[in-house]
From TrEMBL:
<feature type="domain" description="Rieske">
    <location>
        <begin position="123"/>
        <end position="191"/>
    </location>
</feature>
<keyword id="KW-0001">2Fe-2S</keyword>
<keyword id="KW-0479">Metal-binding</keyword>
<keyword id="KW-0411">Iron-sulfur</keyword>
<dbReference type="InterPro" id="IPR017941">
    <property type="entry name" value="Rieske_2Fe-2S"/>
</dbReference>
<dbReference type="InterPro" id="IPR019470">
    <property type="entry name" value="Ubiq_cytC_Rdtase_Fe-S_su_TAT"/>
</dbReference>
<dbReference type="Pfam" id="PF10399">
    <property type="entry name" value="UCR_Fe-S_N"/>
</dbReference>
<keyword id="KW-1133">Transmembrane helix</keyword>
<dbReference type="InterPro" id="IPR036922">
    <property type="entry name" value="Rieske_2Fe-2S_sf"/>
</dbReference>
<dbReference type="Pfam" id="PF00355">
    <property type="entry name" value="Rieske"/>
</dbReference>
<feature type="transmembrane region" description="Helical">
    <location>
        <begin position="20"/>
        <end position="43"/>
    </location>
</feature>
<dbReference type="InterPro" id="IPR006311">
    <property type="entry name" value="TAT_signal"/>
</dbReference>
<keyword id="KW-0408">Iron</keyword>
<comment type="similarity">
    <text>Belongs to the Rieske iron-sulfur protein family.</text>
</comment>
<keyword id="KW-0812">Transmembrane</keyword>
<dbReference type="InterPro" id="IPR014349">
    <property type="entry name" value="Rieske_Fe-S_prot"/>
</dbReference>
<keyword id="KW-0472">Membrane</keyword>
Length: 218
């Protein structure tokens, strides 16, 4: 029997998503459709629901400055939440927040501080690193720990170490946070490819691979 009892983890997850991003209650439905879009071809994967794609620019998710490109100068050891922003076939800018699980966590650490399972090749200068900001346990957005020691999921006390590649250091999460490869483009942070490992809600490589192919072909 698990130590962590959850009456309704999906409702809990949505509540925290709404708090974290200022989204409305429709977000939960959109999340479901977005996930289905990845897993089931019968659902069209629209641009706003695609996972972060190569060439996307990271923009602030904070409602006060949502859509503003994140610059390296904006970043530090405190988590900055981001959305990937791409373009549609007509060249219009699309923030990919139709899938709430696209929420990202971005940090800049001092040179040499990233270690463990962090893929330094997928960072900017070994200092700026991006992860999925969605807990791999039941899908809550993960803020910084209040004591400044890593990230702490408020839903069931999952803990992650962003300096060590987003590994799990406490609580029930089954997997580390997926790292998103990034590069600098001028002052901006650009996505260099898909998540290096399956992000929430994907639990297996095959489904995640199918989703990537669907996103490329949509
Ligand atoms: S959702 Fe359960 S620990 Fe994060």
């Amino acid at each position: 029997m698990t130590r962590y009892k959850v009456k309704d983890p999906e409702l809990t997850r949505r509540r925290f998503i709404n708090v974290a991003t200022g989204a409305t209650a429709t977000v939960g439905v959109m999340s479901l459709l977005g996930t289905l879009g990845g897993a089931h071809p019968m659902f069209r994967m629209t641009e706003d629901k695609k996972p972060p794609m190569e060439g996307d620019i990271l923009v602030h998710a904070d409602p006060a400055k949502e859509g503003t490109p994140i610059t390296v100068a904006d970043l530090g050891t405190t988590l900055v939440q981001a959305w990937p922003m791409g373009t549609d076939a007509e060249g219009n800018k699309i923030i990919r927040k139709g899938e709430p699980n696209n929420l990202l966590a971005v940090y800049k650490f001092a040179a040499g501080e990233l270690s463990g399972e962090a893929n330094v090749e997928a960072t900017i200068d070994g200092q700026v690193v991006a992860y999925s900001d969605i807990c791999t346990h039941a899908g809550c957005p993960v803020p910084d720990a209040k004591d400044g020691n890593g990230m702490f999921c408020p839903c069931h006390s999952g803990q992650y170490a962003p300096k060590q590649g987003g590994i799990v250091v406490g609580g029930p999460p089954p997997h580390k946070l997926a790292q998103l490869p990034i590069v600098a483009e001028g002052d901006n942070v650009k996505v260099a490819g898909f998540f290096l490992t399956p992000p929430y809600p994907y639990t297996d490589e095959a489904t995640w691979e199918a989703t990537k192919e669907a996103a490329k072909g949509a």
